[in-house]
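ok so i was messing around last nite and threw this chain in just to see what happens. nothing serious, just curious
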Amino acid sequence: RHRDFAIFWTGALASNTGSWVQNLTVPYVLYQITESAFWVGAATFAQFIPAMLLGPLAGSLADRYDRRKILLVTQSAMAVAAFALWAVWAVGVRDLWAILALVTLSGVIAGVNIPAWQSFVNDMVPRDDLLSAVTLNSLQFNAARAFGPAIAGLILNAWGPSWAFLLNGISFVFVLFALMLVKVRVPARATPLSGTVRAQFARAVRYTRTQPGIVVGMVAAVLVGFLGNPIQQFTVIFAEDIFEVNALRLGILNVALGLGAVLAAPLVSGWDQLISRGTLVRISLPAYGAAVAAFALSPNYWFGLVALVVVGAGFLTVISTTNTAVQVIVADRVRGRVLAFRIMAFTGAYPLGALIQGSIADVIGPRPTVAGAGLILLGIGLYMGVLRPTLLNRLDDPHDESVGPSAAAVQPS
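result:
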C-alpha cells in the first residue's frame, strides 16, 4: 500500500544481498590467510565496533537532519569503500592489515548510516503499519542473509573472492536509485535539538531509563549479539575444520541462517494480534540458545544445517520483536537517538562477543566455545521467561505520547 516503502525495501534487499556476499567473503579470505579464529573475530570487531563509538553522533544526526539525505551520503561512501576492497584484492594484495583497514572504514560509515536507516522506516509509513514495516525491514535483511551467502558460495567456488567483492560494490547502485525515487513524509518534531551531541545523547539515555520496555528490548539484543550472533563467523571455521566442506557448502550453511529467518517472519508479523511481543521472546530466546548449542555439538554437516535454520528463526524473532517494541514505545522526539543507543548496545556486544569467542576458540576449540555460549543463552532465556516473566511483558508497553520537556530547557551541566 505504500509506494515509497516498497521502492526502498526492494533497493535495500538488493544492496543487503551484496553486503552479505562480502560478509561471508571477508572471514573466508581471512581464515585462508591466517587460519586463526581470533583474526576472523577481529574482522567482525573492526566492522561493527565503530557503530557503537559513533552512536551518539549518528543518533543526533538522524534526529536533526533529513534522513534520506544522510542515507544518500553514507550509502555512496559505503559503495566507494566496497569498490576499494575489490580493487585491493584484484591487484593481488593479500595483506591482513589492508583488509582490516578497509573493513574498519566501511564500519565507520555504517556507524553513521544505521540510526538514520532504522528511523527512516518510520518516515515512510503511518504508525498503524509500523509493526509490519519494521518486520518487513528485518525480513529483507534476513532474506538477503539467505541469498547473499548462497551467491557468495557459488562465486567463491567458481571464480574466487575478487568477483564477490565486486558484486557488493555494484549492489549499492540499487539502494541509491531507490533513495533518489522515494518521497517521505517528514514527521514533525516536538522540540528542536540544542546543546552538544554529548548532551543530546545523554538526554536520550536518561529517557531510555524511564521506559522499562525499551530497556528489556535492549538487554535481549545485547544477549543475542554477545552470545549468539558470533555463530556467523564460526560457520567459516566449522566448514573448514569440523565439517571439511568446500566454499559452496559454506555458503549453504549461511543460507540456512537466512532461510530460518524468512520462515519465522510470518510468525512475527502475521500473528502479532494473537501472540504478544513478550510471549514471542519468552519462547524464542531459549530456543535460540538451544539451537546455537545444537549446532556446536552437531555430529555432521547436515545436522548442523538444520540447527542453523532454527538459529536463524530464533534470531529473527528476538531481534525483530525487540526492535519493534523499541520502535513502538519510543517517543518521536528522541527516536533517532534512542535507536542509536540500541544499535550501540547490539553492535558493541556483537563484535566484542566475536573477538572473545574467537580468542577462546583458538585455545579450547570451536565446539566447546560455541556450545558454551549457546547454553549460557539458553539459561538466561529460561530465567527471563520462567522466573522473571514480568520483565518480558514490558515489551508490550504502549507508545509514549508525551511531549516531554523542551530540549532547550535541559542544558548540559
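not much to say yet. Confidence is low (pLDDT under 50) at residues 405-413.
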